[in-house]
Every structure is written in structure tokens, then in C-alpha cells.
Amino acid sequence: MAGLDARDTRFLLIVVALTLFTPILLQPFPESSSLAQFNAGYPDLMQRFAIFGIFAIGFNILFGLTGYLSFGHAAFLGVGSYATVWMFKLLSYNVLPGLILAVITSGLFALLIGYISLRRSGIYFSILTLAFAQMSFNLAYSVLTPITNGETGLQVYTDDPQYLLAEGGLTTTHIFGLAMNKSLVAPVGGWEFTFNVGYYFCAVIAIAAFYLSLRIFRSPFGMMLRAVKSNQQRMSYTGLNTRPYTLAAFVISGMYAGLAGGLMASMDPLAGAERMQWTASGEVVLMTILGGAGTLMGPVLGAGFIKYFENIFSKINDNVLHGWFAFLPDGLEDLLVTIVHPFVGKGWHLTLGLLFMLVVIFLPGGLVEVGQRLRRLFTRRGGTPDAADPRHAPKSAPHVAE
Amino acid sequence: MGILEVRNVNKRFGGLQALADVNLSVQENAVHAIIGPNGAGKSTLLNCLVGKLIPDTGTVMFDGQSVLGRKPHEINQTGISRVFQTPEIFGDLTVLENVMIPCFATRDGAFRLHAIRTVRAEQDIMERAERVLIDMSLQDRLRDHAASLSRGDKRRLEMAMCLAQEPRLLLLDEPTAGMARADTNKTIDLLKEIRDTRNITMAIIEHDMHVVFSLAERITVLAQGAPLVEDTPENIKGHPKVQEAYLGQAHG
């Protein structure tokens, strides 16, 4: 189907189903249970899963396939957000023109940065991209204030022209009249499911983005990108010019980042310079490596994992802990709370850091390797383990040191 | 005039004259060996032919056109392929993919944003790659990672990648370096087979006299960056200057 073989079609359909049923799957605990705080089926969190999923899928096209580690991808995220908010200010709250402009401007921006940065490889490439992103971040705060509105962040004011905004038109972001913040809340038994327009809008785009990346992975172009990662010397002595290949991958992944940035602004019509900061660039690197660089599903998993930690784990405070350990004698209860305390709430970074270390050391292929190992365990009799298909699970080289 | 004409090529690295007025003419469909002791400038000369180095002075003409100043991938596209001393292959890719890449390069040129069709849909490329791999007796390893091949198989794979491009000139940089005698003989047989079954010109840089005398029709001896003598294997064997500069040293 759609240019895919049977196995990829099945894979895609599973991804589509998971994405569409996310509001139900992420809400496994009844509202009244003490585990309800582990539910993640809130519109803004689910939107973030989809948006960062797109960001990570795009990043993976560059890093996972070619091995070029960009440390400045947040710059494109920021450019996408600014472009979208500008469309809101100039035209109307319909997100479509904004998203189109976000993809175009971030693509052009990536073309410029990539053209210069790709003259070097390895750590020098990473440093160049980092420098460009930090430059963009600082410019957004200073001389570019007329475009970015500096520290306040870019937002829509009532005296903005909004030429296409009809009398009485929607004053929140929407797609052809369907407001992004509109939700259908369905209480089923003890559960409560929220079906949000914004989430489904992001989800449909995320599925399209995933499908596109699947096609790139399976295309001759994707094969060339993996060849770049494997042996550039052999590439040029085989008559292939590596530069346009890497530049194309860079621009495509920059456009993905711009799309993600545009979607962020579409969910909440604001754009701030902090979106371009190096921590944001680092986050997508973590997502990709945590999930499994060079695999199709890994970056999405990594993005979901980190966003879940950021939003759910950070909400566990001492009161919640006391609630959990209440069945224990007082002294023991306090002791356990003291031990667990640094790892939750504000300390969620610590847990994430430890997990990241464990994954890098014991699962160099990322979280997707867990699934692969399990599957191999069950299909050993079959003779050919799945891992023998390198297109599905390229061997992960020691990326970070490259 | 030969298919490859090197005229008065000089190359200096600091105080070292690596190549001094080198002239070389390789005839079409011949096997031409370039020999010489260590530091004679063999590899420098080869690197000047493929675009890795640019000579200080002189000209390099391939098929009547200058290749000087062109990038390695542009020179390859004119019909020159190169085999390295240690096989340069795409270790993370499968054996079949390794050979499909040069097929794409030959068909589509140095760059093509080829993201619409799947690799699977490229039947003609796949068949062409498989044919070459059958010639190199690697047909049983199509789906294996190239990195998992033995050294000898990696050499055959690299050869297959070069031959898949149907080059007019194949440059080989010490194809038997570091090999055991048995593997060396296998490589000689492989090269003989290629020489006899394909219309191809080969230029071989080699240390091992056994390889050179089994394959070459013409031999150029380099010493200290300059060509000492060029002749047929029979004449080279008995040439006093060569004995002195190279063979005497090697056997003494």
C-alpha cells in the first residue's frame, strides 16, 4: 500500500492506530484511583508528544541516517514558531498559512546554515551548528527585536492588521473554523477521555511526517545517506558527491523542525526566543539517542518518554509520596520518602539522567532495542532474527564521539 | 596515444620531491604495473590520478581530457575506479546495497534526490548488482552486513563495486598487501579473470613481484619519484638498473 511492502504497511498501520487511540491509551487509570496522576491523556501533553515526535523524526533523518550530529536544531524550531505567529498577526488565526510559511522559512534557513556548517564534519560540524543556533537565539533577543518582540516574545495584539480576519471570526487558532482548543470529554465508567481538535490535528500531521520519513528510509536517497555515514571516502571514489546529499538531509530535517515549531505556535499563539536555546537543541539529541538513532520508531519513543517524564514525573511531590508509603510504619515511611525525594518532583532530571546512562551503556540501540531483544527471544526458532535486517535496525555506531 | 597520459608531473611535500618529472602512458585494455621501492612515489602518483592530490606542475589526461583540478567524484564519473590497499566498503550496509550504490552512481550521476521510489522498486539496478556479485562469487552473501565479510571477501566486494560501474580504467593500490600467499594467488586469479573477460584497462601499484610478473603486460619502475625504466616484464627482469634499485634490494 502507498509504495510500501506488506511489512512496512503493517508497521505504519500500527503507528496510525496507536496515534489515533492515544487519548485512550494514555489514560489507563480511573480518575479516582491513586495512580490517576500517571495518566497523560491531557490535550496539551498529547499535543507535545506529537509535536516533539515530529521534531525528533526529522532530526533522525539527519543524525540517524548520515551520522551528522547537529547541535542547533532548535533554531529551526524557533524560526518556525516566529513565522507562524507572524501569519496570525498579518492574516488570521487559521494555522494553515502559518505552517506553510514555517516550513518554507525554516527550510531556507537550514539551507544557509547547512551550506556553511557542512563544510566540516564530526565535532566541528556540531560546534558550527551550535554556534549558529546560539547566534540566532541572541539575535532574537537583541537586534531582531522588531521581528521577534525580544524578551516578551512574539504574540498577537488586538491592533494587529489580521487582514483575513472576518468580522466576528474566531480569535483562537483554528483550521478552517475548527478551533484547536475545542475538546470532547467523554466520561466512560470511572475513566475520562479527552478528544482534542489540536491533538488530532498534530497527530494527522505527525502520521504524515512519519510516513514521509519511512519513504525516505526505504528510498535510494535514504540508502545514500546511510552510505555517507558508513564511508565518505568510498562515496566520492564511487562518483557520488556527498555534500548535496548531506545538505538535502539537513534541509529536510530543518523543515521538520520548522513544522514542529509552527505547530507549537498553532497550539498556543506565542513564540519566544528560549525555544532556540541550546538546551532545546540538546533535548532532541537526547530524545533520538534515548529512543534509538537511525531507527524509525526510536525517536518518537524517545520524545514521548522525555516529555512524559518532564510533565508527569515532575508532579510527584512529598505529599504524593507519603500517600504511597502510608501503609508503612511512620519511621520507615519518612525514610523511604527521604530516599525517593531527590528522584521525583524537581529532581526528575536526575532520574532521566540515570535512565539515559543506563540506556546508553546497556542498550546502545536505544529503547527500541528492548522490543527487538524481546522479539528475538520469541522468534529464535525462526532462524533469521529480525536484527539481521539492517534497514529496520541499523547498527548504532558510537554517535556521540563521532 | 594511451588512454591515460601523465606528462611531466611534479609534486613536492615541503623539502621532499615526491614526484620528479613523471611521464607515464597506459595503453587501452592493457595491464600496466607501477613498481618501485618504498617511498618511490607510487601512491603519490596514484593519488594525483584520482584527484586526491593536485600535482604542482604537469598534466594528467584521461581519454584525451585533462582531469587536473577535478574532484574525486568527478574523475570517477569520467570512468576511473579505484581499489584501495585496505578495502574501502560500506560496512554498515548489506553486500547487495554496497554494489547497488555504484550502479546508482553510474546511472544517476553524482547527486540525485531520489526519494520517491523505494529501493525495492529499482529492479534493473538490483539485477545489475546481483550479476556482478555472481561474477565475484558473492551471491550467497547478498543480505549480510559487508563488515561481517572476511578480508578476502571484502576485497572481492570492493572489486565488484568498482566493476559495477563498468569503468574504463581500474586503478589498484597494492591489492595483495598483507595477504597470505594463498589469498594472493586467489587475487591474481581474480584479476586475470577480470582482465580476460572485460574490456578494461588496469593500472596496478604493487610491491609483490610475483603478482606483477603474473599479470602485467607493461611495467614502469619508479625510484625516488622519477621513472627509472618502462618495459615488458621479460626485459624488466633482466634490467641491470632495476636489479640494482629494486630487485637487488628486495632479494638481498
Core attributes:
heterodimer; A: about 400 residues; mainly alpha; ABC transporter involved in vitamin B12 uptake, BtuC; two-stranded antiparallel ribbon; 6 strands; globular; disordered C terminus; B: about 250 residues; alpha/beta; Rossmann fold; 2 domains; 6-stranded mixed β-sheet; 4-stranded antiparallel β-sheet; 9 helices; about 40% helix
Written account of the structure:
The complex is a heterodimer of chains A (402) and B (252). With 402 residues, chain A is mainly α. Chain A has a domain at 6-277: ABC transporter involved in vitamin B12 uptake, BtuC (Orthogonal Bundle). Helix content of chain A is 61%, strand content 5%. Chain A has 17 helices and six strands. Chain A has helices spanning 6-20, 22-25, 43-66, 74-90, 95-117, 122-141, 145-148, 197-218, 220-230, 232-236, 242-267, 278-291, 298-311, 318-324, 330-340, 348-362, 368-379; strands spanning 154-155, 174-175, 178-179, 183-188, 191-196, 270-271. In chain A, the strands form three sheets. In chain A, strands 1-6 form a two-stranded antiparallel ribbon. In chain A, strands 2-3 form a two-stranded antiparallel sheet. Chain B has a six-stranded mixed β-sheet with strand order 6-7-8-3-9-10, with helices on both faces. In chain B, strands 2-1-4-5 form a four-stranded antiparallel β-sheet, with helices on one face. The longest helix of chain B is centred in the last third of the chain and has 17 residues, at 181-197. The model of chain B has no long low-confidence stretch (mean pLDDT 90). By secondary structure, chain B is α/β, with parallel strands linked by helices. Chain B has nine helices and ten strands. Chain B has helices at 42-50, 72-77, 95-108, 123-135, 151-164, 181-197, 209-215, 233-238, 240-251, and strands spanning 4-13, 16-26, 31-35, 57-62, 65-66, 80-83, 169-173, 201-205, 218-223, 226-231. Chain B folds into two domains: 4-79 and 167-251, 3-Layer(aba) Sandwich (Rossmann fold), CATH 3.40.50.300; 90-150, no CATH class. At the A-B interface, helix 8, helix 9, helix 10 and helix 11 of A face helix 2 and helix 3 of B.
